[in-house]
Amino acid sequence: MANILHRVGIKTTSIEAVYRALTSRNQLAAWWTTDTKGEGDKVGNIVAFRFNTDGFDMKVTKLDAPHHVEWEVVAGPAEWVGTTITFDLKQDGDYVILLFQHLNWREPVEFMHHCSTKWAIFLLSLKKLVETGKGEPFPDDVKIDNWN
Amino acid sequence: MANILHRVGIKTTSIEAVYRALTSRNQLAAWWTTDTKGEGDKVGNIVAFRFNTDGFDMKVTKLDAPHHVEWEVVAGPAEWVGTTITFDLKQDGDYVILLFQHLNWREPVEFMHHCSTKWAIFLLSLKKLVETGKGEPFPDDVKIDNWN
């Protein structure tokens, strides 16, 4: 099994604001993809993220406000289905530290390399959203390669 | 063992230009850190990268121009020493695709999460350098958290 890990620090004393960015539809749409359907604030809910025709359906499998959010990928590319995504939040001085994990990829395929870099881009978009009020969600996300 | 993976696509038909960005001191200093000493174009060479007082010494362990560069970390933070960094390049249409791996971390510690996100930032700086002639090396790199 292979995992993607990231860490970003968001300059805010409101850990609740970061938790909202991970659980409310409007906020998710403001940093990941504008085409987001469903609310992420209840265990069992499905949130659907689309990037033009492709995308992912996430089942909210664990919530511990305002510290922990966990999703299971229930639909999307074969490489993603069955993987788990976790967000852990903690206050550290002037920053809320976000530890991100996308766990249990079956193989470290080239697509996983792409997704790892792309997660960094989107987590920095989340940071920007909370710090400035404006993120860079798809389709206005930073492009990284020929797969985008 | 845990690994960091990334993929960036650099819009150029010169795979040699990307290879140079990974092997010449001047070019490494133009995307990773301005404080770079040593040339990376010969197996056995040591290249020293510094970020103020901290940094890494890399031994060039494998070169296959213009497709493959491999380093072993011989000095630096305990978590890095003994790990391996590889860069694989291939032309794909208008892009040179760079597959990056930082292999064999002993534990997926919080510092590894940070380094994963930071590698994304620096690989995008490399992309910018080759595409535009100007990267964003330390100390002008994009800051991601309270560890920077």
From TrEMBL, chains A, B:
Superkingdom of origin organism: Bacteria
Pfam families tied to this protein: AHSA1
Domain Activator of Hsp90 ATPase homologue 1/2-like C-terminal stretches: 13-131
Gene3D superfamilies: 3.30.530.20
Alphabetized InterPro entries for the sequence: ASHA1/2-like_C (IPR013538), START-like_dom_sf (IPR023393)
Membership in a protein family: Belongs to the AHA1 family.
Name listed for the protein in its UniProt record: SRPBCC domain-containing protein
Protein source organism: Chitinophaga caseinilytica
